[in-house]
Specification:
The protein is built from three helices and no strands. The protein has one domain. It is 69% helix and 0% strand. With 93 residues, it is mainly alpha-helical.
Length: 93
């Protein structure tokens, strides 16, 4: 948790709310992945382990989508975004 909070606070601030949101959410999601991995190592409850597996898969997909979108936004305004990758389907929608 402390590592995640440090990474969120250390994210470079651009004063662009979209870019800053993504820059802070990436370590937040990575923290969830790290915690879920610990459950797979030490946890015993099959339903909690299953949830951890689902969290790892969905959060990693969202991290990849956020990194891709952040890279686009860092190059400047995107007048025709064409949708945000991976958001539909990572949560069963």
């Amino acid at each position: 948790m402390a590592r995640m909070m440090r990474a969120m606070h250390d994210a470079p601030q651009s004063h662009d709310p979209d870019r800053d949101f993504l820059a802070m959410m990436i370590p937040h999601h990575q923290g969830a992945v790290d915690m879920a991995r610990l459950v797979l190592v030490y946890g015993r409850d099959p339903l909690v382990r299953r949830l951890a597996e689902e969290i790892i898969a969905s959060q990693q997909a969202e991290i990849a989508a956020m990194r891709a979108r952040l890279a686009i936004l860092e190059r400047g305004a995107d007048p025709a975004p064409g949708g945000f990758p991976a958001l539909h389907g990572t949560r069963g929608e």
